[in-house]
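Practice problem: ATP-binding protein
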Amino acid sequence: MTADSDRAAIDAAWRRVPRSPESVARVGAFTRTRVERILSLVIAVGCAVLGVQGLITSLNTTAERSEWHPAMELIVFLPLGLMLMACVVGRFQRALAAIFVVIYTAALVIWPVAAAGVPSEPEVEPWIFFLLNVATVAAVLAFPLVWQIVCAVVIPVLWGVVRLIQAGFDPRYAIPVVLDVSFALILGGILVALGWMLRSVATNVDTARAKAVSSYAAAAAAEATEQERVAVGALMHDSVLAALIAVERAHTDRERTLAVGMAREALTRLANAESDAGMGSEAPVDAETIAHEIEVSAAETGSGLRVERSQLDGVRLPGVVARALALAATQAITNAVQHADGAGLRVAVHCEREPVRVTVRVSDSGAGFDPDAVPADRLGIRASIHARVAAVGGRARISSGSGGTRVTMEWADTA
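Answer key — structure tokens:
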């Protein structure tokens, strides 16, 4: 990737950072949503395996079937099949899982009646037993944590009671039933714990992510506010205050023409301030653009300045850099016209290749000034030249003395 494409990718990602609390809230369930989806698919696979095992057992135990069995199989396996389909599709799985838990619990309650008179051995489990943990894990999918725990305890215990009732409390069934209930309680507890752990981790990740996005959003808002403040300050100094000063000092026809041009530019920039794209885009432009924009801006102030060009052909640089250098040079020209009456004003743009380096020099032969003595509240040099060039990764130097003032602005491609 090139430096331009890298910068464009970063800008595109930054624009995706939410700028409002509502946007942050909408992205706050990223991990939890995916964990729920994974749980649904894993539960579907496990329940399908146990469901097939229970169905095969039900169909193979023809000797132990009663007239209730077809209806029992239908009311249990049909909701189970619908729940599995919903888990795979990813819709209505919670509702159908809750329905299956309720139906399965009801089937356990009526099991002693449905299996009355059917011979059974203690070592041979009926088909409904194989769906015991299916109901437990369905509760993990459907209910809050408290009800998950209740189901993980109540359903295995209910199965033990039902199994003993079916066997007429035969002592031979005691040990197998205790083992079955213990196994179901342990496995159910593990399933509930795993579900709680995964959801807790996902929730914590989403909380941390939401806080991070909120922090980035606050930083983006603060940066945007600061950029707007600097831009407005530069606009007020570059155009409005400069135009007012020019109007106050206008005594000759040339000065009045300069003041009119500066006032027109100030009004135009104020009118377009809200919709202005700021410093331009990252799209590469020719270095010639810098010289052209400087000449256009100089013409608007009443100056027929011609920019000296050196090795500009074929050199391209980001549009935001070209725009910043042109605006900074325009401010330097305005300062020279206001404070040195434009004496000996010259502007030169020079480029170098491999790596690309651009140098813009604005010089005059006025009386000069002391840059260190400029008050801190004057933005002409600090904001409109130094800060503007530094914002695009360049640097500006000002040297001034009795022989005049030279402003040098440089930018180099460091990618």
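Discussion: The first helix runs from residue 3 to 15. Students who identified this feature from the tokens alone can consider the problem solved.
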